[in-house]
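Hi all, long-time lurker, first post. I run a small reading group and we've been trying to get comfortable going from sequence to structure in the token notation. Rather than ask abstract questions, I figured I'd post a concrete chain and ask someone more experienced to write out its structure so we can walk through it together at our next meeting. Sequence below, copied exactly:
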Amino acid sequence: MISASPLLLQSTSLLQEVVYLVSQGADPDEIGLMNIDEQLPVLEYPQPGLDIIQELTSPRLIKSHLPYRFLPTAMHNGEAKVIYMARNPKDLVVSYYQFHCSLRTMRYRGSFQEFCRRFMNDKLGYGSWFEHVQEFWEHRMDSNVLFLKYEDMYKDMGTLVEQLARFLGVSCDKSQLEVMVENCNQLIEQCCKSEALSVYRGRVGVWKDVFTVSMNEKFDTMYRQKMDKSDLTFDFCL
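-- Answer (accepted) --
Happy to help. Here is the structure in token form:
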């Protein structure tokens, strides 16, 4: 069982499925048949809305992309648990571009090069990624915050699932943990094989198929400037 407190989930779509699997004892086939977004509504979206979210039975799983400072006071006071997942920014900007191009409400028509420039200049929705991720990184030692990295799902799913289970208060023996890990790896495999979502939710290092040499050099220069005071590091390829 997870904590009776509401859970604010900062995540990728893949992580929300992993969290649901670990917290609810679900399996990949079950998740594949459901609309996972209905199980983890987004806090800041008008649909389904705050009224519906407040009516959810505790413990609630809620997803958000908001910066730390804009999350509810209960979270800042330690009354809610937060799982935050950061992804290396090169893969992230590719994913974010695909997301903008796919949404009917956005239908971004510009080039990836222009989109990447907007990302580097903090001109996209939700503000600066660099401020966003560093703000949560500063709170990584808070007892109600679990800071994860996307790449770790591919490097060591076993450790990540064990961290999640412990953080969520899920009791499981060694054999149950092994089943959870196997099911989560199955989720990863399904995502990598999905033709529609191969870039959006896919492998680590996909940026190498998209970035030009010039773009990569400019991105690296900008990244060093904006992250020079942080000890947060990422795996850009595995």
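A couple of things your group might point at:
The radius of gyration is 18 Å.
Strands lie at 7-10, 61-63, 81-86, 145-149.
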